[in-house]
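Dear Dr. H.,

I hope your travels went smoothly. While you were away I took the liberty of generating a structure for the chain from your last submission, since the lab meeting agenda had it listed for discussion. I wanted you to have the full record in hand beforehand rather than looking at slides cold. The sequence, exactly as received, is reproduced here:
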Amino acid sequence: MGGSGSSSSEDRDIDALERISRERIRGSDQPQRRNVFISFANEDLALVNFLRGQAKNENSNLDFIDRSLRDPYDIENVEYIRRGIRERIRQTSVTVCFVTENTAQSKWVDWEIRESISLGKGVVAMYQGEKPPSRLPPAIREFGIKLVPWRQAELTAVINQSAEER
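The corresponding predicted structure, in token form, is as follows:
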């Protein structure tokens, strides 16, 4: 006697698998969260913390995982500092350089941009206000890094684009 009646346990398992599959398919339409290193002049920490807060806000279009330094290294050993920053950059797909009037004077921002590029990471430069500052870290012009205004939707799009290009 053939016939294979399925038990209610098997039906529940199949239903559960179908539900999981539908959720994954729906979830694939969501943009991928990017791991981002934020390069900035220490004088701009308050603004960068505001940017970090926007990325954590559920109502924000800006969505990334911040892998940048929370506190600057206060050590004289330059190579130790570089190793620490390099490791943070390795954990990311994109470096966002926040450019202000302070950025060109930073002793680290230009190096972080160059290191990001040498590690194969995407780099985006973001500015606040109507136009970017007149003085920029040399690497921005040298590598033709895209400058974008601090607007959530635009920044998210360029982060995703830059990550996919690498």
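Two observations you may find useful: DSSP finds six helices and five strands in the chain. The radius of gyration is 22 Å.

With kind regards,
E. W.
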